[in-house]
Every structure is written in structure tokens, then in C-alpha cells.
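Researcher: We're teaching a course module on how sequence relates to structure. For the next exercise, students receive a sequence and then see the predicted structure as C-alpha cells, so they can try to spot secondary structure elements on their own. Here is the exercise chain.
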Amino acid sequence: MTSHRDAAHPPQVGVPVDVLDGLTRFRHRLGMFGRAVHWYQEIGSTNDAALLLAERGDEEGTLVGADLQTAGRGRQGRIWSSPRGAGLYVSAILRPPKPVVALLTLAAGVSIADGIREASGLTVDLKWPNDAYLGGRKVAGILAEAGTADIGFNHVVLGIGINVSEASYPPEVAARATSLEREVGRPVDRGLVLASCLSALAARYRQLLTDAPGVLATWRSYSAVMLGRRVECTVGLRSVVGVAEDIDDTGALIVRAGDETIRVISGEVIWS
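Model: And here is the predicted structure for the students to work with:
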């Protein structure tokens, strides 16, 4: 495992002991993940750093992690609160074939759900397209960002944020966030959570390439309490209110609005 030296964001010396221990214990299950790990004490965004590495041609499976993000972000440009040491803030470089790129976020959601269940015994509810909830509060989020470098490497950076321990969040975040430790009622091993999620991601990524419908079926099982709920969404220039019924084979959210069936591919979705 290596550490990346960046004058703007100096990394700490080596991967944290708890993270390194988890990756070592799960080495036989991690596939391409964990061979190259770049860990920072503090960074603006792990996704930004991973995108730069991807553009220079770093290998698939390379990870960028941090103890603290000062400019972490989620979908639609929202801020992802990343208190020091309270969570996992990790980005992975992937180079998937184009037909499955649109499904990566959903596959990652399944992987996070699989990993959290293995590491803590908790079962999360997945909300389209990229959030994981426990008891109605957000515990994890995913941000996939694609790019094409001049040197011809197509890549997707998959950013994962998981609230592991209790932290002091901004008021607007505290009311809707939770952590694994809060829900399970005991300390949770951060390294174990990361290793479990990465091993699940390795397995689900392989499955996505050969059995995408199977991945989507598992996503539906984790999202059972979310589907059937009222949503308000923006589709193009329209604001639509309806019921989230399902996802289709491309990963789009299917919303029933009166007699109309609408495919939501991106944009704002507010769940009731």
C-alpha cells in the first residue's frame, strides 16, 4: 500500500492502523481494492483527489481516503459533513464498461448495505439514487463522478461517506443524520466497516458485469420501505408529484403521477 504525497494536501504517514488492519484481514476478498491506498489526515475532497489520480492513469481499484474532508460534497452539489475521525470518507477509481456506468451508484448502494449489515448487524434502507438510512436518518451517501482524460482513460470515481461514530454536525445535518454507533449502541470498528463494504463492492461490481438484473433485484429488496412513497421530483423543467413505484433496467426511478408514468434519470427528488 502506498501513500500519495501532495504539497497542497500532505498525507499522514501511512494508512491508519484500524483501516490497515481491516484491509489486511479482508485481503482475500477485496479483489482490486486496497492494493493502492492514498490516505490524508485532511483534504478538501477525496473525490477530487481520486479524479486527478484517475486522469493520470492510476489503476482501477485505487483508493483515496481521509480522516477529515473540508469540502466533501454529495449529490446536486450539497455539502457532505465530514468531521474528523467520525466517519469513512473514501473514493475508489473504477474503469467500467459503458453499459453499466449508469448502474454503478445503485450497485454501490447495495454494497454499502451489504457491508454495513456484515460489520454491524444493521440493515439499511436504500433511497434512490444514492443514500442509505437507518431509522429514517441518513447514515451513508454515495457520489459517482465520471470523466475522460486526454490520455484516453475513461473512469468513474465512486465516493462513499459513512457516519461511523457520533459527531458534532451542523444543526441542519444533525436533525436528519445518524451513525452506526448510535444505532447499534456500541463502538464500531471503522476498519471493519470499510473492509466489509469494499469486499461487497468487489463482489457486486463483478456481478454487475455479468448479472445486472440480480444487482437491481437486491437493490429493490433494500429499498422496499422506500418504494411506494410519495415523491416530488424535477424532470427537465417540470416539477412532478407522484409515487415512486420501482426502478427500471437502466436504474431510472419510475414515478406514477396520476395516469402518467415518468422515468427519473437525474435531478432533485424529495421523498415524503
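Model: If you want an answer key for the exercise: Confidence is low (pLDDT under 50) at residues 1-13. The first strand starts at residue 37 and ends at 40.
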